[in-house]
């Protein structure tokens, strides 16, 4: 069983409070849909969990392991993540990207990269430049990399962006298969896609989070399900800010 626990997490950027998360926890076997308006703090929260942003206060724990400078590299080995694509990788070949990825995470590079790409139905050669791939192909490549070290936590920021319907379905199937023994956290503005795969949801607005709620409870408590759960929490935080 893997559990991520977050307590009293705060982060300010340019003198503005971006995150104030009191208590939040995520467990393996569940797919969490993290939803919130643009600029609500979704990516910042996920980057904090991945150790890519250092919070100003509070604590993030993976089971008994507290995330700090000393434990960060151990923490990273448990996490697979895909964030928005940066243009800076476009000039790299796939081969270089793989080398840099495994070096950064201090992991052994798998011998068979064909197998890696088969997981996401990609047919590409290692000498190809990242920039020559379509947006959807790059998404699949980054997902293949994220899951290649069998992480216990999978963090996907907008994983359906740029994917065609086959790519969306393949990603959903992969996520479903992987979720059996992992913590999966996904952000998306597509409630339809989230409704297809998530088992629980949490709303974030103005850097504050709602309680985590099971999909079945969301659908029984709110007429319009996730959309109402989202609207109600956003309205609540708007009234406080
Ligand atoms: N480097 C930075 N410096 C200052 N402010 C920042 C920085 N990065 C993000 N922010 C601000 O932090 C807030 C949260 O941004 P974040 O990207 O986490 O939101 P989000 O919920 O992921 O949004 P979206 O749905 O648009 O992707 C935004 O108001 C953003 O402007």
TrEMBL record:
Keyword ATP-binding attached: yes
Residue ranges annotated for the ABC transporter domain, each copy included: 4-231
Domain of life of the native organism: Bacteria
SUPFAM superfamilies: P-loop containing nucleoside triphosphate hydrolases
UniProt keyword terms in alphabetical order: ATP-binding, Nucleotide-binding, Transport
Coiled coil: none
Gene Ontology molecular function: any one: ATP binding
InterPro entries: AAA+_ATPase, ABC_transporter-like_ATP-bd, ABC_transporter-like_CS, ABC_Transporter_VariousFunc, P-loop_NTPase
Family annotation (SMART domains): AAA (SM00382)
Cited PANTHER family: ABC TRANSPORTER ATP-BINDING PROTEIN ALBC-RELATED
Name of the molecule in the record: ABC transporter ATP-binding protein
Organism: Lacticaseibacillus zeae subsp. silagei
